[in-house]
Amino acid sequence: MTSLNVLIAVCLAYVALLFFIAFVAERAGVQGKGGWLLRSPLVYTLSLSIYCTAWTFYGAVGNAARSGLEYVTIYLGPSLVILGWWWILRRLVRIGRSHKVTSIADLISSRFGKSNALAIVVTLMAVVTVTPYIALQLQSVTLSLSIFSAAEQGATPDTIDNDAAAFWIACGLALFTVLFGTRNLNVNERHHGVVIAVAAEAIVKLVALLAVGIFVVWGIAGGLPETLARIDASDLGTWQTSGSRWATLTFLAATAFLCLPRMFQVMVVENADEKHLRIASWAFPLYLMLMSLFVVPIAVIGLEEMPAGSNPDLFVLSLPLSQGREGLAMFSFIGGFSSATSMVIVATLALSTMVSNHVVMPVFLHLRQGGASQSGDVREVVILSRRMSILAIIGFGYIYYQVSGGSGALASIGLISFAGVAQFLPSMLGGIFWRGATRLGALWGLGVGFMLWVFTMLLPSFGAGAVLSAEVFEHGLLGLGMLRPQAMFGIEGMDPIVHAVFWSLLINTLTFAAVSLATFPSPLERLQGAQFVNVFDHSAQTQGWNASVAESEDLMIMAQRILGAQEARSLFSDQARAQGLSGHLPEPTPDFLQLLERELSGSVGAATAHAMISQIVGGSAVSVQDLMAVADESAQMLEYSSQLEAKSKELSQTAAKLQAANTKLMQLSAQKDAFLSQISHELRTPMTSIRAFSEILRDTEGMRPMEKAKYANIIHSEAIRLTRLLDDLLDLSVLENGQVTLNHQTGNLGELLDQAIASAQAGASNPIPIHRRRLNERLLLETDLDRLCQVFINLITNAQKYCAAEDPELHIDVTEKDGAVWVDFIDNGAGIPAEAREMMFEKFSRIGAQDSNGAGLGLAICREIMARLGGDVSYLADAQGTGFRVVLSHSRAVAAQ
Amino acid sequence: MGKHVLLIEDELNIIEAIRFLLSREGWQVDTHNNGTDAAQITRELKPDLVVLDVMLPGKSGFDILEELRSHEETQDLPVLMLTARGQSRDREMAEKAGVNRFMTKPFSNSEVLTAVRDLLYVHQQKA
Questions:
Q1: 8 A C-beta contact, residue A129 and residue A417
Q2: What ipTM did this prediction achieve?
Q3: CA-CA-CA-CA dihedral for A93, A96, A102, A104, to nearest 10
Q4: Chain B contact for A537, CB < 8 A?
Q5: Mean pLDDT computed over every residue of chain A
Q6: Cis peptide bond upstream of B106, omega within 30
Q7: Which of A100, A558, A643, A886 has a Cα at 20 to 30 A from A804?
């Protein structure tokens, strides 16, 4: 007969073995050895088996004995999740690695803009839901111990104090977790020692359960066929399970597999390589299948062999014991012990990380900030807070165990816990698949779901009258029929678990979605949301670097970008030397980070520097305030630079304007000079002749009358030329200054032409022959007839003077088109060369051979007159000969007859 | 002695007046009314003096003067420049180009005669 002392000694030895394994693995990990094992997919798969707790180890048989095949759902859910790893798990692992996520609370808070409130809510919810689960493990161990104590004939049952055992077990687990869970403080929160120990325990519990199964089938039942026959004979297979309960339990198990903090820890945080998922996707379901292989035989044989009223949860132990197989029973006990301890260790580790990071540290930092600048290594504080958290959580578990007094079946506590963590699902999945999810949506969803879980599941689990009065069960909270904990909204007849899971998750999801749609995410949330949802676009698969070196390297890369390669390198190597390190990269100690932040803030502003370092170090989240400060800085810079840009634009515009004005002035000045010299020339030339000949006439004696007359004629004609020039200049000046008064009259175009021709030909030595079509000229005009006549005379005179044809002739054609009247003057001359056409309407422009009588003002005057009359005069480039067109616009021409 | 003057001018009446004045003094007066080939004609005719207008068709009097000064046979030739533009800048330009005498139109006949005489006298002294 095994004495309890032996049992406890074996337990202690087993725990010591675990310490040893963990210690060796931890050493190897630090030294960089044994990577093949530490980072093997096998270890990863085995570590996932912490899903199978004592509840599964013992409880599955109990569940099968009570409810038939329902226990399969507990294995089915996780198998489905991991078989479909490509959709959810791969994404979670990638996000976890690229964002250095440390826990499920960190994941959710990170996704929703690094919200501290959200992290605290998730952490508290996790503590509330998982603590009973830890208590459950303690209970299972003490319960299994009690089997041995009951079986021990010689000792009195009272000699074993269950509470004391639970207490010491709790202490042992706490010690283990503290030692291996907080040995070093890696940013990525990996714990080689713990993982290896958990993997070892996974093997122990599987082998133990298989051993018991094999013993039951071949040792008790007498072989496989007999066993199958006995199973057929039992009424276990005939028990009906409702479809909704099946579906709900499968869903719940799948959800728990994703959402349980300890599962998140081993699956995401401790994941060394994304590729491990691929192997785990078949290896883990295989493991679960082996775990469940002998559940039904043990249950059926147990129900037959054991006396009525025995606890089916403990068949795994009691069956071998009843057959006198104490060694096997002890092995089985060790298997259950393994399940319990591995779960407690990892769950506590995960919870303590959350509590420390999201509750204790923010409070500590806040207090420290308030109390001046106490320098000191924050690492020490973090480790201390981790350790305190571990002790507190295991302590809570123990107290819960004490208070609940081991009440209720194991399975129900497990399911309640599952349903509790399932409340994380909407926020988690929504966060990684839906960019529109917002922080408030997550907060409200989680809050409402959690409240409903407490109300419909946790509180009723204590039984009517414990916390909720029978009154509430009967008539609803506050007497509202809608709020009966097991018949919400008046819908009755649902299985209590189905009911609780359905309503809490449904309303959680709806609230999450509705609030998300109704609220607007902050900039940081948008950023994080985009990075989480599009994680496969942004992150390459990262390899397992030594975290602290990788981080320093990241800081270096960032610093180089901002400070410049040279300066960053010298800063880093100086600091590395100051820390007594040989390389170029210093440890990212708080002092160094502070220094770096100061350096960076000189270049990019304090807020940006803080945010950048936070982003890389990941320890302290970038708060919305940080981001707003960054935005403010950028806005100021933008504002400033846009002001500068506007100013310089304005300046260059002003400069351009000045330049243009200057050019214009220069042009005007040059024009004025040219005009003055031109006028001077035009005036002085006739005056020169007049003066010279008048002096000749005055000073020459005995001049012949013929000569005298000739010279007097020259004086006379030059005087007339001078007068005409002055007239033209005055005329032009008046026209150009717009001081001219137009004298509008109505007249006939034909008559006006008659008048102009007569005037042009009067006194001309060789009047040019003119061809007209009088029929077309029968138009009434309303305009300043005298001015128009002046234009006509000018054009006719020009033709008369300059047409160089042998038999010069001039055609005058009138066309009426679209209400406008064209009067074309086309002679049979040589035309005007293209290069002169542009200038010929300018003042003093004379074309071709010099004409002593023309000052080059005629066409300039014509153009000015036509502009005043609202028409135009232009050169006809395509005419046969030299042609000009006078255009009288619509309003000025009145059709006659 | 044959005193030969070349008058480069495009205004018919002014040509008439100057020809009258100088012929009466016994000078041989040749005229040319185009700027383009004026310098070349000058080299061909080898006058003792050139009376040069500024505003000529084809080429300005300043350009003709520069061209004259750039050729060896005409670089010392006395040039009397007459202009109707009468701006101080024109006088500067003419002096820069190497004019011997610069007069603004309208001139007095006696001034022109004196200037021509002086120029020829100085030129002969030098020679």
A1: yes
A2: 0.92
A3: -70
A4: no
A5: 79
A6: yes
A7: A886
